[in-house]
TrEMBL record:
Gene3D superfamilies: 3.10.20.30, [2Fe-2S]-binding domain. Signal peptide: none annotated. It comes from the Bacteria. Residues 3-79 form the 2Fe-2S ferredoxin-type domain. This is (2Fe-2S)-binding protein.
């Protein structure tokens, strides 16, 4: 049964009238037109669907939208724009950190959560933070370099 509620995504409020059990990923992609988060496995195994919920990287494939009242959701689209890339997005491009790109939105979101809580991560910190994100392309060394490069850039911007 549908119920009306408001969902805050990327800083904007959206009024929805859908079942509270609808997966967040479905709402993002099919109701709000935000295609950055991907469906990979639907079982919290691959991380392609990761979004930030109140700053924490969480799976959106299995998260019921009705549990998000009063919470802030940020998708990869909310990190930056084509005109003003987030330092993570810029570093991923500079390091050529993706091949097929299917996993990258989830990786970017997970990396953002890491850098928000730890602005000076070690390589081991990055590896641990991205453990929930599966990439089969073999871009891992470039992904790690990109996250560490973005961390350095963000530290310089703050200084």
């Amino acid at each position: 049964m549908s119920q009306p509620f408001t969902l805050t995504v990327n800083g904007r409020d959206h009024s929805l009238d859908i079942p509270a059990t609808t997966p967040l990923l479905d709402v993002l992609r099919n109701h709000l037109g935000l295609k950055g988060s991907r469906y990979g496995c639907g079982l919290e195994q691959c991380g392609a669907c990761m979004v930030l919920i109140d700053g924490n990287a969480e799976y959106s494939c299995s998260r019921e939208v009705g549990t998000l009242a009063g919470r802030c959701v940020t998708t990869v689209e909310g990190l930056g724009s084509p005109e003003a890339l987030h330092p993570l997005q810029r570093a991923f491009l500079e390091e050529q950190a993706g091949q097929c790109g299917y996993c990258l939105s989830g990786i970017l979101v997970s990396a953002k959560a890491l850098l928000d809580r730890n602005p000076n991560p070690t390589r081991a910190d990055v590896i641990a933070a991205l453990d929930a994100n599966l990439c089969r392309c073999g871009s891992h060394p470039r992904i790690l370099r990109a996250v560490l490069k973005a961390a350095a850039t963000l530290r310089q911007e703050v200084a």
